């Protein structure tokens, strides 16, 4: 990915997002599986920088990790301490790997060095080290006291009762100790010397430990007792929930962009505290629906989101999204008790204050709070620094819903937890221009010219159906075999390079324009199973900065929320002349083409057949603008379509159409 990513003004968001696995659950599960007895199959694991770091570290420590395919892994547990007793580990900026591994390695009886990126060496770890030293662990700072990098040496361990630990800097220190202590044979107790922050993240730890057979007795949130004699045992199979922190961006998009946006992967049964973001969103006026494994968000029924003054100690990561929503509220908002932001991937309070000011907001910050007043006017084209912090990049992308373009610097930082974030956001929010109309009405040419002029992506859905028809003819699949055609469509090796069309590695741009292929495509497109097989594939073409989609049900089924819908038409005679000239330009000899009168009759018959079919009939959407191109040349037709686009998308300022 480049050094920046530009997001255009966003008007609407709707659709469905499937979340990647939770980072917090993924790395906890990997570590518990590694030190448990037996093998564990982990499904729906997050595939991102932090989990790759944990997997690589476990492999270096002698744990067998095998990818089963996709997001599934098999972890062969070592039944206690790691078998490798000397290793150097580079753990990047992955706090969910660095902190728990520090604790487990300190009880593994080996010699280890742990390093990270420069920012990780600025993130405090002294409270965890002091807690481990109470057990007799030998941990030494290699550079600055209280911070990584660390050296861990073998030591004589003895259980201190209780282990005193601070809980007001990072809940990961408590998580690390809790996960490591079952490696001891004796009972152990942790007593917090301060108030515990981010309690829901510790709740995740306790529930996952229980899945692996270890129970923790808790006295409120002050004392934690791990009875003796417990060992981690594999549950055999475990599925990772979607990431609730990442869900916040798409739920917010639904609230800002109308919705409905359905976020799949978390829901009413989630074990993650950050699902509380959805409850807060509802309190601010958004319309929220809960399902067992999904949450749906819509904009408030009336008015703006309400301003807020909230203690967000329990959901510090999702709270960053609320800082962006404060820009859209009906008054000033305050985020309180967020001191943990100071020791995250960056100093998030300072970073958020600086970047919000770039957009035009009035911002005040304190040691553990942030006050945000919405801008009178949003600054256009602000370049947002992300500080190598994935959540800065993701939450600031939502600013585009103010109707201004936004530039995200160092967008690749989202790879820490959500490598496909920008594609996922585009799939529900990138502007779509949907063109439909009868065959040879000019919609394909107009669509290609619009896409080129706007710098948008192009989807010629008709080409997809023509490719299925061509593939069927080449494979000997009957045009009456709906199931066989649907299977072909689902695995279709289609590729587009601008306006060039490929089937596997063969260019078929001219071949798919043959009349017999067109007739076959029309027949195939009437099959529900074929259309279903191609539906999600077509939606995948929706990317930033936008999409021009040409096809029969682009505006009615595939992209019903398209910002612009145009229905092009022309008389059968005019369309026959265009089709004739188009085929000549494609290199088909004139003596191989039927007369114009025959072409016109064929087009009229195809119109009738397409209009009468039950699936995706040829008809104009109620919200589509009619553009009759009978008397228009191509330049005039493109100019007329562009005028419609600029009226519907006033933020779009393309260069003049050539």
Key terms for this structure?
single chain; 658 residues; alpha/beta; UDP-n-acetylglucosamine1-carboxyvinyl-transferase, Chain; five-stranded parallel β-sheet; four-stranded mixed β-sheet; 20% strand; elongated
3D shape: elongated
Given as residue ranges, the uncertain stretches (5+ residues, pLDDT < 50) are none
Task: Name the structural class.
Answer: alpha/beta
Number of strands: 31
The main sheet orders its strands as 25-29-24-30-31
CATH class of the largest domain: Alpha Beta
Instruction: Count the DSSP helices.
Output: 21
| CATH architectural label of the largest domain | 3-Layer(aba) Sandwich
Helix % is 25-40%
Distance between the termini: 30 Å
Radius of gyration: 29 Å
Mean pLDDT: 91
**Strand share of the residues?**
15-25%
Main beta sheet: 5 strands, parallel
Remind me, CATH topology of the largest domain?
A: Rossmann fold
Count the domains: 3
- The CATH homologous superfamily of the largest domain corresponds to P-loop containing nucleotide triphosphate hydrolases
């Amino acid at each position: 990915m480049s050094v920046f990513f530009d997001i255009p003004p966003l008007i609407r968001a709707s659709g469905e997002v499937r979340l990647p696995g939770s980072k917090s659950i993924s790395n906890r599960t990997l570590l518990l599986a590694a030190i448990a007895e037996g093998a564990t199959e982990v499904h729906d694991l997050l595939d991102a920088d932090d989990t790759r770091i944990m997997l690589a570290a476990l492999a270096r420590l002698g744990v067998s990790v095998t990818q089963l395919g996709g997001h599934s892994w098999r972890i062969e547990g070592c039944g206690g301490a790691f078998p490798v007793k000397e290793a150097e580990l580079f753990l990047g900026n992955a706090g969910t790997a660095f902190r728990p591994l520090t604790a487990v390695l300190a009880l593994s009886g080996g010699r280890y060095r742990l390093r990270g990126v420069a920012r990780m060496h600025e993130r405090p770890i002294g409270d965890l080290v002091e807690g481990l030293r109470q057990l007799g662990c030998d941990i030494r700072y290699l550079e600055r006291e209280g911070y990584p990098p660390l050296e861990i040496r073998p030591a004589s361990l003895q259980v201190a009762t209780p282990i005193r630990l601070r809980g007001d800097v990072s809940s990961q220190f408590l998580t690390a100790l809790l996960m490591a202590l079952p490696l001891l044979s004796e009972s152990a107790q942790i007593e917090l010397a301060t108030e515990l922050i981010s309690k829901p993240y510790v709740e995740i730890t306790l529930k996952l430990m229980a899945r692996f057979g270890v129970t923790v007795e808790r006295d409120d949130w002050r004392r934690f007792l791990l009875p003796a004699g417990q060992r981690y045992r594999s549950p055999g199979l475990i599925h990772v929930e979607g990431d609730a922190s990442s869900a916040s961006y798409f739920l917010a998009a639904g609230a800002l962009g109308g919705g409905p946006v359905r976020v799949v992967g978390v829901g009413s049964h989630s074990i993650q505290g950050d699902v509380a973001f959805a409850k807060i969103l509802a309190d601010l006026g958004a319309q929220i629906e809960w399902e067992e494994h999904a949450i749906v968000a819509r904009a408030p029924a009336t008015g703006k989101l309400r301003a807020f003054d909230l203690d967000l100690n329990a959901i510090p990561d999702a709270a960053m999204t609320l800082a962006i929503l404060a820009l859209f509220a009906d008054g000033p908002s305050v985020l309180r008790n967020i001191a943990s932001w100071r020791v995250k991937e960056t100093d998030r309070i300072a970073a958020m204050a600086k970047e919000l000011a770039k957009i035009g907001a009035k911002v005040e910050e304190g040691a553990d709070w942030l006050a945000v007043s919405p801008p009178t006017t949003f600054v256009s084209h602000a370049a947002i620094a992300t500080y190598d912090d994935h959540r800065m990049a993701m939450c600031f992308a939502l600013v585009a819903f103010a109707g201004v373009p936004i530039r995200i610097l160092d967008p690749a930082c989202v790879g820490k937890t959500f490598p496909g974030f920008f594609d996922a956001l585009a799939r529900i929010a990138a502007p779509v221009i949907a063109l439909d109309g009868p065959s040879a009405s000019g919609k394909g040419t107009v669509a290609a010219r619009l896409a080129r002029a706007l710098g948008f992506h192009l989807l010629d859905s008709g080409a997809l159906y023509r490719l299925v028809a061509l593939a069927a003819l080449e494979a000997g699949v009957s045009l009456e075999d709906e199931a066989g055609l649907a299977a072909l469509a689902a695995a279709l090796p289609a590729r587009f390079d601008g306006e060039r069309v490929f089937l596997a590695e063969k260019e078929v741009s001219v071949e798919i324009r043959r009349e017999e292929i067109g007739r076959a495509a029309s027949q195939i497109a009437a099959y529900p199973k074929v259309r279903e097989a191609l539906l999600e594939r077509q939606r995948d073409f929706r990317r930033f900065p936008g999409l021009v989609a040409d096809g029969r049900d682009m505006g009615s089924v595939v992209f019903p929320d398209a910002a612009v819908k145009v229905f092009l038409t022309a008389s059968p005679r005019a369309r026959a002349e265009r089709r004739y000239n188009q085929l000549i330009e494609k290199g088909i000899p004139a003596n191989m083409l039927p007369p114009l009168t025959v072409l016109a009759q064929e087009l009229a018959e195809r119109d009738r057949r397409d209009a009468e079919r039950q699936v995706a009939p040829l008809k104009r959407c109620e919200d589509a603008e009619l553009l009759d191109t009978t008397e228009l040349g191509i330049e005039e037709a493109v100019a007329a379509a562009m005028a419609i686009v600029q009226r519907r998308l006033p933020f779009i300022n393309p260069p003049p159409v050539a």
